[in-house]
Write a structure and sequence with these properties.
35% strand; 12% helix; 10 strands; OB fold (Dihydrolipoamide Acetyltransferase, E2P); 2 helices; 2 domains; mainly beta; four-stranded antiparallel sheet
Amino acid sequence: MDFKEIKKLVKLLKEEDLAVLSISENDTHIHIEQKGAEAAVQPAADRPAPAVSEEEASKLIEITAGQIGTFYNQKDENSDEIFVSEGDKVSKGDQVGFIEAMKVFNDVKSSVAGIVEEITVANGDAVEYGDVLFRVRPEEA
């Protein structure tokens, strides 16, 4: 099993909101657990609906992770202050979070001015390059 296949499994774990994913192939066994996941897996019918419909999502601009690491929306480890919440207005270039990798902190900045419609990751979540972090409804000109 190569790295790309494992990466797909991690993405599947997140997308399906699974607590645990365990796969065996020949002599290889992969066991992945989601940090902070509840022990019981929630049935699909009981999961909350996405915050934004597909039609609305097509009008939104996505802010994505520029690297692999841990995403933080909290400004400081010992603080409750966050960079942005859903419904907040942001300007182009505003810092909306940061990604930590090997004790190096890289700012995540908004590429557009508008309203934060959806935050797709939680504080402390592992992210990979290209993962969607925020969806922003751009300001109308």
